[in-house]
Amino acid sequence: MMITISVNGKSLKINSGFNILQLLNQLNSPQDGIAVAVNNSIILKELWGTRLLASDDKVLIIQATQGG
User: Fold this and answer.
1) What single DSSP character describes residue 44?
2) In what order do the strands lie in the sheet with 58-63?
3) In the chain, which ranges are continuous DSSP H helix?
């Protein structure tokens, strides 16, 4: 079954039961130097493999930047 979530403001259909790691892999996103928030709550990196995504979740993937 497919569900719809929002990733950085864009609608995306994924399989139900997807976790954050699976989403990052599908998006070909790097897993280092990023932070992930679901519904405005930062999810610790060690929980990405177990945090399941639900229909209408709002996911924000934040790329860390260097500068000064």
Assistant:
1) P
2) 10-15, 2-7, 58-63, 34-38, 41-43
3) 20-26
How confident is the model over 16-43, as a mean pLDDT?
A: 96
CATH of the domain spanning 2-63, picked from 3.40.190.10, 3.30.465.10, 3.10.20.30, 3.40.50.620: 3.10.20.30
Q: How many other C-beta atoms are found inside a 10 Å radius of the C-beta of residue 22?
A: 16
Going by C-alpha positions, the residue among 36, 31, 37, 3 that lies closest to residue 17 is 3
Spatial contact of 21 and 49, defined as CB atoms under 8 Å apart = yes
pTM comes to: 0.91
